[in-house]
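Hey Z.,

So I finally got round to the zinc ion thing we talked about over coffee. Here's the setup:
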Amino acid sequence: MSSAAGPEIDRLIQLLARLPGLGPRSARRAALHLIKKRELLMAPLAAALQVALDKIEICSTCGNIDTQNPCTLCADPRREDSVIVVVADVADLWALERAQAINARYHVLGGTLSPLDGVGPKELAIDALIARAHAPNVSEVILALNATVDGQTTAHYITDLLQGANVRVTKLAHGVPVGGELDYLDEGTLAAAIRSRTAF
Ligand code: ZN
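And the result:
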């Protein structure tokens, strides 16, 4: 990758190109945009990156990313202590929070079991989850994991380990998405929707 600009700007483009969703072409456009909006965008972005770099911590309770530890969600007394929502990644936690789906506690595993990629139970925060689930005030663990082979394998593995804890283990429903048309759904989703039908 080479541009008509100096090595410093080349370096900026190369770093931007490593971001997910940005290829070399969009990285060049982003760099040029930042340079044009130097005062308005580039300086605040650089400052925000520096603050994030200095302050970001991983919550030692749930694994969320925040500028405080315990994180804002773990420290919030208005949240339901009896329910733990288990997610694979921080991105999933943030998605559930955007949906304002539940006002409970979270636990980030740091991925899903994937023998082919060398991800075993020790690579994930599973032991910490089992310990949290044994707390007397916890009554439900919701497995909010991906509807993929790895996600469901992980869900089964955790469910087995939770047998000894006094908690109800639940998982997300699979089925017709909000606004979805049956004719467009794949067979797996349709079959899962029929299996998990509910009373009208
Ligand atoms: Zn936390």
